Amino acid sequence: MGKTKHTGPIKLPAKPDPKLWVSKVPFGLGKVKPQHIRETAKIAWQNRDNLPYAYRILTQGVCDGCALGVSGLYDQTLAGPHLCTTRLNVLRLNTMPAIREELLHADIDELSRMSSTELRQLGRIPYPLIRRQGERKFSRATWDEALDTIAAKARAIDPKGMAFYLTARGITNESYYAAAKVARLLGTNNIDNASRICHSPSKTALKRSVGVGASTCNYKDWIGTDVLVFWGSVAANNQPVSTKYMYAAKRKGTKIIVINPYYEPSMEQYWIPSIPESALFGTKLADDVYQVNIGGDIAFMNGVMKVWFEMEEAAQGSAIDHAFVQAHTNGYEQLRAHVAQQDWTTLEQSSGLSRERMREFAQLLARAASAVFVWSMGLTQHRFGTDNISQVANLALLRGFLGREHCGLMPIRGHSGVQGSGEMGTDPFSLPGGDMSSAADRSRIEQLWGFALPSWQGDIVGVTLENALLPEDQERKLRLFYTSGGNFLETMPDPAFVREALTAVDVRVHQDIILNTSTLLDAREAVVVLPAMTRYEQPGGGTSTSTERMVYFSPEIAGPRIGEARAEWAIYADLARRVKPEAAALHLGCGSAEAIRAEIALAAPSYNGIQHLKERGDVFQYGGAWLCEDGVCPTPDGRGALLPIELPQLRKPEGHFAVTTRRGKQFNSMIYSDIDPFNEADRYDVLIHPGDAAPLALSEGEAIVVYNRFGSMHGRVKFAEVKTGNIEVHWPEGNSLIPKGVYEPHAGIPEYNTAVIVEKAETYHAHKDTRYVEKRIEELEIEAG
C-alpha cells in the first residue's frame, strides 16, 4: 500500500480556452446532444412532491449513482459543485411515494404487462408481500410472517441449495458485510454481487498482475498525465461527472485516446453543464479514436508491444522502462519471446487495425512520461476478460506507468456500491479483507466471527441460476434464492432461460425498494418481497467505496419514510436470528450501523478507519494515493507479473457480424429514455456501418432481424461509425442473442459478445420453413469452413 496521501481537490482554470470548443454556436444548438437544462427541469418536476427532501439528498448524501464518489455536491478531485443527470435520474427512486394498494395487489397478469420502467414509476414497496403457488395477487404480510416463511425454508434444506445475491443499487458496505456474514452463518458460500457481471475480471487480473484488486490511482491523476486512455469505456455517458475531469485534463495538455469498436459521439465532444465555457460551446475530448474489432484488444496490445520490442532492437530504452522492469517485474523475457512470435497479419486481422495504427499508438505511449489506463465493460464482458485486463497491466508495467503521480490502472466503476461488495466478502471467492482460498484469511475471519465457515466452494450467480434446473436429488439444486435488488431477466444472457430458472426455485425472495419484471415471476412455493430502505433512510447512515478507494460516509437524511421498509443489514440480521437463534445471539454482532463499521475495521484491515466515519463529509482513502507506490506491488516478492497473453479465437464465421451490447440513456438496466441523446438511436436500433449495410441492400430505418442459434432480435438499421464487421445493440434488449453458460474461466463473468446474422425482416419472415434459421446458420458456417 502507498504512503503518499491524496492532496484534495484542485481548481479549474478561470480563463476559457477556445481551442477546445466544439462550436461557437451557443449551447450546441442544432447538434445531437443531451439537453441538460431541459432534463434537469423534467427531473425537478418529477420530484415536485418531495423537493425539500430531494434537495437534502443531493446536498447531504453521497451519490447513489456511479462510483465517482460525490459527497453532497463535492468530491476530492475538483473544487466546486458537481451534478449530473445520471444522479438526477436515480433521485426519484429515493423520493417516490409508496405504491398505491390497488396497484400493488392487482392481478399478477395485469402487473406483468408493464415494463420495468412502468413498474418502477409505480413507486416504492411499502410493506412485506407474499404470493404463494397458484395465487394471482400479492398479499400483504407481516414482517414475522415473511421472515418466518424464509427461515422455515432455510432450515429445511441443504445450505448448498440456498443462495444470496446483492446488486449495487445504492447498497452500503454495512449491508454487504452483514449479508456476507449471515450467509456464512447460515452455512452457505453461495453469495455473489453485481461485479460478477461487470468488473470481476478487473479484480482478478489486477491481483494476478500487480497484487491489488482496485484502481491503483486517482481521478486527480487524469489531470496532467501525458496520455489518458479510455478502453471500452464510455465514461461520458455512464459517469457524466467524469467529463469535468477530462476537461481539466485537456486544459493541462493531456491527450485523450479512446479505444472502442464504436466511435462514441459523447467521448468525442461533450457539453459539460457545470462548466460555463463548456456548457456554452462544448469541449473536444478525444484526440484520437482507435476502432478495434469486438474482442480485438488483446491483438491490438500485442501489436503495440511488438512495436516496442522492435524499437528496442534499434535503440535500447526507446520504448521500455528497463530500470522499472528490472526492479519491479518478473517475466520480461518470456513476454518478449511470446510477442516476437506474433505475426502482423494475424494481429491486424484480429484487432481490425493496421500495423501503422498500432505503431502510432505504441510511439505515443513510448514518448509519454506518464499515462493512465481507464477501462470498463468493453474489456471485461468477454470470456477472456481477465486476459484483457492483464494485457493492459503489461503495457503499464513495461512503461513504468504504476505507483506514481499521473500514472495507473483504473477500472472505472459504474455503481456506487460495487467496489466495496467483494471487499466486504459478498463473493463466493472472497472474505472481508481476504480470500476464501487462503487458510490464513479463513482462520482470521473464523476467529473474529466465532464460527466455522463452510468449507465448500460457493457458486457464481450464473451457475446458481443454472442450479435451479438440477434434478431434485442434487444437493446444489437451488431451492431458496434471496436477492437484494437486481433483475436477472434484464441483465443476464438468454432471458428465456433465466425466466425458466427463476420460476423453478421453491422460494424466491426479492429485497428491494421497487418492483421489476423478475419480481412478478412465479415460484414453486412462494415469492416473498421485502421492502428495503435506501442508503439515505438507514439509521446510523452508511458508507460506500468509490472507484478510487475513497470510503465515504453518507448520513441518514431527515425526510419521509416508506411504510415498513427496513435497513438492509437489519433484515439480514433478523433472518439469521430466526434460522439459527442460538448461533446468531452468540456471533452475529450486527445490531447497528456503527457496530458493523467497527467490526469491518477488524475484518478488513485496509478499511481501518471506517469506524471513525460518523458525520456528513467524513471520508478516507484506503491504500494511499497510489497502490504499488514506487513500483512495489503487494505480491509475495513485491514484483508485478508480465504475462504472455494468447490471442482469443473470435469465432466469427463468414457472413456473420460480431455483436456487442451498449448502454443508452439508462442506469444499469433501468432505462430512462427510449432515445439515446448522443446519437438519437432507439432502443431497438442496430448500429451498423454503412459499408456493411450496402452489400445487404439495407437502408437506414429498415426493419431487420438479427439472429443466431441462441435467439433473435427484431430491430431497425441505424447507420453509425461502428467498426466494419461489427454491430452494436442495446443492453438488455440484445441479451436474447447471447448464449447462456459461457463464463470467463478466471472471474466467472458471462460472455456478452457473440456472432450473428443480419437479414432484412421481409426476407427472414418470408421463409415459412421453421428450420430456416438453423439451416441458414449451418450454410454460412459450412461456407466459412
Automatic annotation (TrEMBL):
Alphabetical UniProt keywords: Iron, Iron-sulfur, Metal-binding
InterPro entries xrefs: Asp_de-COase-like_dom_sf, MoPterin_dinucl-bd_dom, Mopterin_OxRdtase, Mopterin_OxRdtse_a_bac, Prok_molybdopt-oxidoreductase
Pfam families, per database record: Molybdopterin, Molydop_binding
Residue ranges of domain Molybdopterin dinucleotide-binding in the record: 659-755
Domain Molybdopterin oxidoreductase intervals: 124-577
Signal peptide: none
SUPFAM superfamilies for the chain: ADC-like, Formate dehydrogenase/DMSO reductase, domains 1-3
PANTHER family: PROTEIN YDEP, RESPIRATORY NITRATE REDUCTASE
Name of the protein in its database record: FdhF/YdeP family oxidoreductase
Originating organism: Paenibacillus planticolens
